[in-house]
TrEMBL record, chain A:
Keywords: Cell membrane, Membrane, Transmembrane, Transmembrane helix. This is ABC transporter. Residues 277-398, 730-846 form the ABC3 transporter permease C-terminal domain. Belongs to the ABC-4 integral membrane protein family. It is a multi-pass membrane protein. GO terms for cellular component: plasma membrane. The lineage of its organism: Bacteria, Bacillati, Actinomycetota, Actinomycetes, Kitasatosporales. Residues 17-241, 499-695 form the MacB-like periplasmic core domain. GO terms for molecular function: transmembrane transporter activity. InterPro entries: ABC3_permease_C (IPR003838), MacB_PCD (IPR025857), Macrolide_Exporter_MacB (IPR050250). It is found in: Cell membrane.
TrEMBL record, chain B:
SUPFAM superfamilies: P-loop containing nucleoside triphosphate hydrolases (SSF52540). InterPro entries: AAA+_ATPase (IPR003593), ABC_transporter-like_ATP-bd (IPR003439), ABC_transpr_LolD-like (IPR015854), MacB-like_ATP-bd (IPR017911), P-loop_NTPase (IPR027417). This is ABC transporter ATP-binding protein. One of its GO terms (cellular component) is membrane protein complex. Keywords: ATP-binding, Nucleotide-binding, Transport. GO terms for molecular function: ATP binding; ATP hydrolysis activity; transmembrane transporter activity. It comes from Kitasatospora phosalacinea. PROSITE patterns: ABC_TRANSPORTER_2. Gene3D superfamilies: P-loop containing nucleotide triphosphate hydrolases (3.40.50.300). Residues 16-253 form the ABC transporter domain.
Length: 854, 257
């Protein structure tokens, strides 16, 4: 019995090849993910732990800067806890071999044009601590020497190379204050993972570092190296007595390593989860192919199986023989997948390394869990998918062996299936529709649950949908492609179950791709119109690290060549009587306002700003029954009362706060408002010359960004499009599996219909016609899957966007018709490509052998 | 080696003709001579039956003359067209425009209705259907009420009638039928055979039918006998008895020789 099963595998190896490939691809994805993330994780952990090799105990000032540029400007107000004295005391501990006072914080380095080198979040500065010989073992100089005075700086190799600096050059650096020039005295190398992974590190002498990054006499942390024989915990106990418990945190080197390991594990596991989700999608798509293959194989072998039953095989034996076949394929494919996955893991690592040399590398980690997991998943998926076909095989009555009917035309009704589908899809749709009208977590949960139900329901209903949807293209097919077109359509709807499970693979992929694209596109266009509709300024100036702009900057920008109008944007949060506490108010220069901001006025005019009056949004006005002439009583941050007279009402705009005031009025209440942005209008529009002029006028601070409105939008959209590209790439895998499925189904259908094809050839259909017929069938099935996927994706995106709209006003569903058409075009192409081989095979089929009666 | 010939027995013009046709399958030990120097011609408006024991080369002869199979040597013509040397595309066109087929089974596409199956060759050619002719054909086969049915909804006899109607509808130069009644009960078979005979008598169609059934052969105007790939005899105006009688003689001859 089992020998029969295995012999079947060998006999049908051609037809089982696609199934095996589908399983192989899915498992390769799983194994690749596991190998890659394990390897990356190990490499990162190794690289982090070497950087802590000389740390026995780390004493860090609580709340002290750890290089995070997001801290507010209020740092330095709390009491200094780690001073030079602290370092000395710690150095004097009996267990201390060495104590190093570390100063560290945000420091940006400019290239020759005054632009930031590297990324804001990985731009750091620290102090250089020379020993007696003038060297710092932590930062060995590759060229030159370490910085000794305020006008000197040393850079890490990568940063210096990136900006093209050599020892002796003048380098512009900026901490949280203004930018200053320093002479590059040395270029160093370091194994600090934050630096090796592409960061910038500028070293200064300790006094300058304290001056620029903290305040004189202060340290951010002290690194203690224990004497031989002193344990880390022991040294920690000794150190604890020397520092105030309140302001400092003590950690042993081991604790730091563990913390890092945990952090790395967290990072890696996030990536791993995302990748595994996509691997899961590929495997899920594979399930449809496996089910299809086995169903078709069994249909073709109906007589053979009936004969087995007739000569005495039990139902169980028939079921088992099919499952053994599946098991064999599962094992072969999973082993292949595992090997391919290890290759993918290795490939990914070297690929990443090629892109970013800073990433740590290490030897490939193939954990036992990877091997076991991959094999178990692959085999289980295959065998479970074959379960239903196997069960059906066992229901074949022995008498089927005697029946003369050649083709198993008995098609089970779809009533039960459709009912199940409706029971799933309808409540799913209901949940989505209800959820889309709500906000918050409940809405999100409803959407997620609804989307899941609807997706499954639609998959179950796909056979039902196939006829009407494909009927839509019928007339076109018949008209454009004649008889082959007509036959293609009829063949496509001939076996709705088969068509559905072939198309389902593409439906899954397209649903996800479309939903992501529509959401991405909608958010992008919301942001674009937000910026584009309200902002007329040519440039916006702000700090890359999100910090406050210094008070004198607006004046400096105004003096730059080619500047026509300038306004800083004041931000204050005042309590307003009858409205509420901490209400955001933005302040603009009254004279420049019209040239920088575009508001449509419902009543009053922007000129009111010139009379120290405020403008309010229509929504705000309606809510608080305000009109031109109304007065709001506000209390500024420091308690000063300010009267806000409404001078105009503007159409709601997401680009400005609901209350817009002139700078003068704001500064009357709060002389030191938060300023994060300066808007600039140039005489000749946004020209590079104007940008350079602004940079030059403001001291070429590398932290300062001068961006056009388009830059703002682009910077925002870059993240979205990067995410989308990644998703497309990952979903591409599922599409490849889907293509295999289409090839597989077509090849088997062609085999099943060889008599028909022979007959068509005999009565005069050319080879070309046969090819066309198969190709069109493939295209029709692919497009069917794609159309359902696109519609479903758009619908899900619409529902998601409605929920998101509560966070981002002005967010509406904007369907990128171009992309949608492209997807459909690609799906048609997928159909064409998948049909190449089956169509060729069909057209080459020998007419005579296909019409032979026996 | 004498040429096996059944030439010019008919009067008038040949609708199809084979001259010195040889067909060899396989090589070396597996070599089978399916047709051995066969020359035969089928006259226009004539109903010819090809008879012979199983494996005698009946189907092979039909396939070669209908452009479904390549000949090893010799010549085969349909009307004035020489088939030998034609490319696949030209052969396909020829079959589509000049030849009608009725096979033993799998004549119809299950996805098309009876009517669509009948007009299929014309649809493939993209030519216009002669409605008056189509009506006449449909009426003659007696399918008027069933044109919108699919093959699965028709009996075996009805399916073969649809196949006959399809073969006739495009007014081909010749119809080849390979054991068209092989799968049918005797009543349905008789219907098909009378229908084929009527199409010759009343519509002037040329029909060549392969059969191993003497009763079926008796519907024809002329019977050509094949044995071991050679034409061994022919009979005009056959009856079931005369055919059976001839066949017995071959058997006897075969045994004694
Ligand atoms: N494709 C083939 N390959 C090899 N031999 C064949 C092939 N087709 C037919 N034959 C052989 O040619 C001979 C004639 O076959 P056929 O024309 O089918 O006979 P009939 O139709 O009279 O029963 C037989 O001996 C058969 O075995
Ligand atoms: Mg035969």
């Amino acid at each position: 019995m089992y020998r029969t099963a295995l012999r079947n595998v060998l006999a049908h190896k051609g037809r089982l090849l696609m199934t095996a490939l589908a399983v192989l691809l899915g498992t390769a994805f799983v194994a690749g993910t596991l190998v890659f993330s394990d390897t990356m994780g190990r490499a990162m952990r190794d690289s982090f732990s070497t950087s802590f090799s000389d740390v026995s105990v780390l004493v860090s000032a609580r709340g002290s800067d750890s290089g995070d540029p997001g801290d507010g400007p209020r740092r330095g107000e709390d009491e200094a806890v780690l001073t030079a004295d602290t370092v000395k005391e710690l150095a004097a501990l009996p267990g201390t071999e060495r104590a190093r006072g570390v100063v560290s914080g945000f420091t940006a380095v400019a290239d020759r044009n005054g632009n930031l080198v590297g990324q804001v979040w990985s731009s750091r500065g620290a102090n250089f601590v020379p020993d007696a010989s003038g060297a710092d073992p932590r930062y060995p100089m590759a060229e030159g020497r370490g910085p000794r005075t305020a006008g000197e700086v040393a850079l890490n190799r990568q940063a210096a190379d990136k900006a093209g600096y050599h020892v002796g050059d003048t380098v512009r650096v900026a901490g949280n204050g203004t930018a200053r020039d320093a002479v590059l005295t040395g270029v160093f190398t370091t194994d600090d993972p934050q630096v090796t992974s592409g960061g910038t590190l500028a070293l200064m002498d300790t006094a300058t570092a304290q001056q620029e990054l903290l305040e004189p006499g202060r340290f951010s942390s002290v690194v203690l190296t224990a004497k031989p024989g002193t344990g880390e915990a022991q040294l920690l106990d000794q150190a604890r007595a020397e520092v105030p418990a309140e302001g400092a945190e003590l950690q042993t080197g081991q604790e730091l390593k563990d913390e890092q390991a945990e952090m790395v594990a967290g990072m890696v596991s996030n990536t791993k989860t995302v990748l595994l989700v996509f691997a899961g999608i590929s495997l899920f798509v594979g399930i449809f192919i496996i089910v299809n293959t086995f169903t078709m194989l069994i249909a073709q072998r109906i007589k053979e199986l009936a004969l087995l039953r007739a000569v005495g095989a039990s139902r169980g034996q028939v079921t088992k023989s099919v499952l053994v076949e599946a098991l064999a394929i599962g094992v072969i494919a999973s082993v292949g997948g595992l090997l391919a996955g290890i290759g993918i893991g290795a490939g990914l690592q070297s690929l990443l390394h090629a892109f970013d040399e800073g990433l740590p590398t290490g030897s490939l980690v193939i954990a036992p869990a990877t091997v076991v997991g991959t094999l178990v998943v692959g085999v289980l998926v295959t065998v479970l998918s074959a379960l239903l076909p196997a069960f059906r095989a066992s229901r074949i009555p022995p008498v089927a062996a005697m029946s003369s009917g050649d083709q198993p035309t008995t098609q089970r009704g779809l009533v039960i299936r459709n009912s199940i589908g409706a029971v799933l899809a309808l409540p799913g749709l209901g949940l989505i529709l209800t959820g889309s009208n709500r906000t918050g977590t409940t809405a999100q949960l409803m959407l997620a649950a609804g989307a899941g139900l609807t997706l499954i329901g639609v998959f179950v209903l796909l056979p039902l949908l196939s006829r009407p949807v494909i009927a839509l293209v019928g007339p076109v097919l018949a008209k454009v492609f004649g008889t082959p077109g007509k036959l293609a359509r009829l063949n496509a709807v001939r076996n709705p179950r088969r068509t559905a499970s072939t198309a389902a693979a593409l439906t899954i992929g397209l649903t996800l791709v479309t939903a992501l694209t529509v959401i991405g596109n909608s958010v992008t266009s919301a942001v674009t119109s937000l910026v584009g509709d309200t902002m007329k300024a040519d440039y916006a100036v702000n700090m890359a690290n999100g910090r406050q702009l210094s008070a004198d900057l607006t004046g400096l920008v105004a003096k730059a060549d080619g500047v026509k109008a300038v306004s800083q944007v004041d931000n204050v949060w005042w309590d307003i009587e009858g409205v509420g506490k901490d209400r955001a108010i933005e302040g603009y220069d009254a004279a420049a306002f019209d040239q920088l901001v575009n508001l449509t006025m419902e009543s009053g005019s922007t000129a009111a700003l010139g009379q120290d009056q405020v403008l309010v949004s229509g929504e705000f006005a309606a809510k608080h029954q305000l009109s031109v002439g109304s007065v709001l009583r506000a209390t500024a941050a420091k308690g000063a009362p300010v009267a806000l007279t409404v001078g105009g009402v503007f159409e709601n705009s997401e680009g400005v706060s609901p209350i817009v005031a002139p700078n003068r009025l704001i500064e009357a209440g709060d002389p030191d408002p938060l300023v994060q942005q300066i808007l600039v209008k140039g005489t000749d529009g946004p020209t590079p010359a104007l940008k350079q002029a602004i940079k030059d006028a403001t001291g070429r601070n590398p932290v300062m960004e001068v961006r056009t409105m388009q830059d703002l939008v682009d910077d925002f959209n870059r993240n979205i499009s990067a995410t989308l590209s990644l998703m497309y790439g990952l979903l591409g895998m599922a599409v490849v599996v889907a293509v295999l499925g289409v090839i597989n189904t077509l090849a088997m259908s062609v085999f099943e219909r060889k008599r028909e094809i022979g007959m068509l050839r005999a009565i005069g259909l050319e080879r070309r016609g046969i090819k066309r017929m198969i190709r069109l069938e493939s295209v029709v099935i692919s497009l069917f899957g794609a159309v359902v996927g696109v519609l479903l994706g758009c619908f899900l995106a619409w529902a998601t966007l409605r929920v998101l709209a509560s966070d981002l006003k002005g967010l509406t569903t904007v369907i990128p018709y171009g992309s949608v058409l492209l997807f459909l075009g690609l799906a048609a192409l997928v159909g064409m490509v998948a049909a190449l081989w089956p169509a060729r095979r069909a057209s080459r089929m020998d007419i005579l052998s296909s019409i032979k009666t026996d | 080696m004498s040429t096996s010939t059944a030439y010019a027995a008919h009067t008038g013009v040949a609708a199809a003709r084979a001259t010195g046709l040889n067909k060899v399958y396989g090589e070396g030990e597996t070599r089978v001579v399916a047709l051995d120097d066969v020359s035969v011609s089928f006259g226009q408006g004539e109903f010819t039956a090809i008879m012979g024991p199983s494996g005698s080369g009946k189907s092979t002869l039909m396939h070669c003359m209908a452009g479904l199979d390549e000949v090893s040597s010799g010549s085969a013509t349909i009307g004035d067209t020489e088939l030998v040397g034609l490319k696949d595309k030209q052969l396909t066109r020829l079959r589509r425009d000049k030849i009608g087929f009725v096979f033993q089974a799998f004549n119809l596409l299950p996805t098309l209705t009876a009517l669509e199956n009948i007009t299929l060759p014309m649809d493939i050619a993209g030519s216009k259907v002669d409605q008056a002719w189509l009506d006449r054909v449909v009426e003659t086969v007696g399918l008027s009420g069933r044109l919108s049915h699919r093959p699965a909804q028709l009996s075996g006899g009805q399916q073969q009638r649809v196949a006959c109607a399809r073969a006739l509808a495009s007014k081909p130069a010749i119809i080849f039928a390979d054991e068209p009644t092989g799968n049918l009960d005797s009543r349905s078979g008789a219907e098909i055979l009378s229908f084929l005979r009527n199409s010759v008598r009343e519509l002037g169609q040329t029909v060549v039918m392969v059969t191993h059934d003497p009763v079926a052969a008796s519907y024809a105007d002329r019977v050509v006998f094949l044995a071991d790939g050679r034409i061994v005899d022919e009979l005009h105006h056959p009856t079931a008895d005369s055919v059976l009688d001839r066949m017995r003689r071959f058997d006897a001859k075969g045994r004694t020789s």
